[in-house]
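#struct-pred
JK: can someone run the complex with zinc ion? inputs below
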Amino acid sequence: MINKFISQKGVISLSVLLVFIVPLSSSIIFSKINSVSNIYFIENNINSVLNGKTKYFWSNLTQSEQNKFINYSDFKEFIQSKYSPLSININKIKYITKNTLKINFSLKNSNSNIRIPQYYNTHYFTFTINKHDKFTNVGLFSLNTPIIIYYARQYNRIIKIPIMMLHRVAPQYPSRQNYSSEYAYKLDYYLTLTTEDFKLQLQYLKTHDYHTIDMNTLYNNYYYNFPLPKNPIILTFDDGRESAFQYAYPLLLKYHDIAVFNIITGFVGSKTKTHKYMSWKQIKQMYLHGMEIESHTVTHLALGNLTLGEMNYQIIVSKSVLEKKLGNSVQFIAYPSGSPFRSNNIKKEIILSSRLKYYGYIAGLVDDNFNKDIQNLKNSYSLYRIRDSNLSLSEFIALITGNIT
Ligand SMILES: [Zn+2]
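RT: done, structure tokens with the ligand placed:
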């Protein structure tokens, strides 16, 4: 009886095994064929864009990819004004899954009037298609790839866009007993915006049809005519304080807003009696949820007071550390204490701007002191900001609408 049972079980197992083996092997063969055709499909689409046939590629984008643009002609203008002055070749294909290709391109300029960030020639761009053969990830042609500077297109461009400067967002103003000096206490006091006030600001922006954008989008507009939303506004947070992660970031997510976080790379994860800075894990989390991460130097020194070597160190190292940690390009900087632009040291301003341009930055944000909501994008290395701390809602509204008294 026992033997019979075993033998019966053996027969059953074998037949179960056979039932599984047959479809398993056929599905392996099928997926191989499928992945080859997917590779061909992806490559074919990339080549169509590189050959100026953007319509075919557009027709293969998912609705949500298409929705990033107003319409097809908008997409076409963006792609063409960004890439058509360059020669682009598919260089290497590094990693392949069934629906994903990682591709390295070589981008070359025919003209010294163009500066291509090194990132392009070293980075692998991910292209992904879904089961309906629609692109869910468009790699090189994404909106957030680095801005390529076309010096010929640096024309005067006056735009109304308030760029807000925030630091500490917390439920309460700081208390004097935690600070060793009156000066340090006052500095933090005037850099604080309460969580409640920040929430009121975001609610105001939402109900008055303002739209938060990042620096990359602003320059997609400047160089490639990418359309900006109605009433654009940029929220920037300096220093990478943990309070901004803890109190401002959840509200940004809640209201579907984005912001720019300017990080002091040498301070990441550190803590003093009064200051706590975000960790790399927190910075990465914000980046993956759509926040833009940019440089605020390595150790927060006033750049106008440094030697050329020290200045280079602050701007090169902060950029490369952020790029390595996030796998994304960094092209914007906020100057600690607005130096040298606040002190009006023209010679230092020219030296710093030329160094920034040389090392791949395309714009720099000055400190407050200017309270202007109108920018001329030609002055990219000294964009004005509006101090957004210690403000009532009515003061905030007056500043962003330009009704400054
Ligand atoms: Zn700062």
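RT: quick notes.
The chain has two domains: 26-149, 154-400.
The chain is about 40% helix and 20% strand.
JK: thanks, will look after standup
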